[in-house]
Amino acid sequence: DTYNNRWLWQDQVKISDRLSKIFSKMLMLAPSDRFQSATEILSILNTTETGNSQTNTASSTPVSSTPVSSTPVSATSPSPTPVLSNQNPSPQSSKNKAPVQAANPKPILKKSPPPKPRRRTPNFSLLEILSSAAFTGFEGGLLAIALDSLLTNPGVGLGILGATVGGLVFAQTRRIIEKIDFFIIAGITAALIYFLPVLQGGLSIGTILVIAAMSGAAIVGVTALFRIIYAVLTKIL
């Protein structure tokens, strides 16, 4: 019976109750509930056979007129001879015995290498995010005017502008440039456009600064909008 984890053999054969109990004890699940030695089983079987032979002899022998002794007969079976496990084996038998191996050796667990430390992404406050957006927009506006003045192919200028702005954003996420660096880089770019008329594209310096400021404000507005959407989705989900 795999569900109850036991043997169902009583229905397959017909034997006496005494022998059935002996077999059932021999098939117990826990080893501690079984017979501990063959000597114990033989002792119980011999006791059973002796009791059966005495019963048959008593039934076949005629009743004698001799008075029966009043000494009580003990009904308990002789205790089985204990098997001593600490007896010292002979030198000859110990030489012939093969070394005992473990039945289920434990597998050797290989130590896994320690995990590599993860690179921590720097956390930014809301003020830092908005200031970075303002710098990116302002610097991008200045670079767009300068590249449009120098290059006749708008596709090439757009590619250079995208790569430059992407590099600035990456440097800000790694905190390579931050805080006072924004003013320094934006000031250098504005000074180059001011002193190099070829980069102004026919616009006055005031118009260029206004366009760059409007570009920075637009990027700040877009960043704030995405920040609000992210906060709302975080609370909902």
List the topology elements:
Blueprint: H1 17-26, H2 38-60, H3 91-96, H4 126-150, H5 154-173, H6 180-195, H7 205-236
Description:
The chain is an all-alpha fold and 237 residues long. It contains 7 helices and no strands. The protein has helices at 17-26, 38-60, 91-96, 126-150, 154-173, 180-195, 205-236. Helix 4 packs parallel to helix 6 and helix 4 packs across helix 7. The model is unreliable at 57-79 and 81-95 (pLDDT under 50).
Which structural traits does this protein have?
237 residues, mainly alpha, 56% helix
Summarize the structure.
This protein has 237 residues and is mainly α.
> How would the global form be characterised?
rod-shaped
Provide the succession of SSEs.
HHHHHHH
Average pLDDT score: 75
Discrete helix count: 7
Radius of gyration: 50 Å
Instruction: Tell me what portion of residues adopts beta-strand conformation.
Output: under 5%
| Distance N to C terminus | 50 Å
